[in-house]
């Protein structure tokens, strides 16, 4: 176990995320296509907010056939504005999805490479003995010879405290990778920041799911419980 191994893993994760974010910013988020989609999303947002505000300021009472038609027309106008906004949000979200998928593939490959390099190697020693269930993860990839004699200390009392590569890598991706992405990564604008649910909210996505036999009411109920 050496501190240099831990520093090397942390640095590798940070550099990989920096490269991924740098390429995404240069290739995707600086392109004219992405900027046009952002502008279209902002126009759709303004149009939707304006339609909702007008409907709230000028409510139409239902007391005649003409007023009922006017109210139906007003409702359809708000619905069209909302659908246009969702379509524009999906268009922006799609541009964020490709870099995210490629980043995920990159880190999967990085995990495979580092796992081969640190296979069977103790990367760190924990100051406590994990529960049996967690030892499956902390000691993953570690194998001790039956004749191995472990000399304990006051803090390190047994080989069960040995920590393999997996835990260090996971902690690095949950902390260092996250912090680098927060600083260098491009965050999707409001309305396009729901990930997969942004595409589900798109009327085109709902029609596609319905054609596959998916009940949208079940999905909406699931989202409320999340």
Describe the protein.
With 226 residues, the chain is mostly helical. It contains eight helices and two strands; from the N terminus they run H-H-H-E-H-E-H-H-H-H. It has helices at 3-27, 32-57, 65-117, 132-138, 165-184, 196-201, 203-211, 216-225, and strands spanning 124-125, 162-163. It has a two-stranded antiparallel sheet. Helix 1 (3-27) packs parallel to helix 5 and helix 2 runs antiparallel to helix 3 (65-117). The longest helix has 53 residues, at 65-117. The radius of gyration is 26 Å and the shape is elongated.
What's the topology here?
Layout: H1 3-27, H2 32-57, H3 65-117, E1 124-125, H4 132-138, E2 162-163, H5 165-184, H6 196-201, H7 203-211, H8 216-225
Antiparallel strand pairs: 1-2
Features:
single chain, 226 residues, mainly alpha, two-stranded antiparallel ribbon, 8 helices, 2% strand, elongated
Q: What does the largest sheet look like?
A: 2 strands, antiparallel
The rounded Rg comes to 26 Å
Beta fraction: under 5%
- Poorly predicted ranges (pLDDT <50, ≥5 residues)? none
What proportion of the residues is helical, as a percent range? Answer: 55-70%
* Helix-strand string: HHHEHEHHHH
The pLDDT mean sits at 78
Alpha plus pi helix count: 8
End-to-end C-alpha gap: 41 Å
CA-based shape: elongated
Secondary structural class: mainly alpha
- In the sheet with the most strands, the strands line up as 1-2
Beta strands, count: 2
């Amino acid at each position: 176990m050496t501190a240099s191994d831990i520093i090397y893993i942390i640095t590798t994760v940070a550099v990989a995320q920096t490269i991924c974010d740098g390429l995404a910013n240069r290739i995707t988020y600086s392109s004219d296509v992405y900027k046009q989609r952002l502008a279209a999303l902002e126009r759709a947002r303004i149009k939707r907010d304006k339609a909702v505000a007008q409907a709230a300021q000028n409510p139409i009472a239902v007391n005649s056939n003409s007023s009922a038609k006017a109210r139906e027309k007003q409702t359809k106008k708000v619905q069209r504005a909302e659908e246009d906004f969702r379509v524009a949000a999906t268009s922006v979200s799609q541009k964020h999805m490709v870099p995210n998928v490629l980043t995920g593939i990159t880190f999967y490959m990085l995990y495979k490479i580092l796992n081969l390099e640190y296979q069977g190697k103790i990367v760190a020693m924990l100051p406590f003995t994990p529960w049996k269930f967690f030892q499956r993860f902390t000691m993953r990839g570690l194998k001790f010879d039956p004749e191995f004699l472990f000399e304990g200390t006051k803090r390190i009392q047994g080989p069960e405290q040995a920590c393999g590569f997996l835990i260090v890598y996971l902690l690095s991706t949950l902390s260092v990778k996250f912090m680098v992405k927060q600083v260098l990564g491009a965050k999707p604008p409001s309305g396009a920041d729901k990930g997969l649910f942004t595409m589900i909210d798109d009327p085109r996505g709902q029609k596609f799911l319905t054609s596959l036999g998916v009940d949208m009411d079940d999905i909406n109920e699931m989202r409320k419980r999340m």
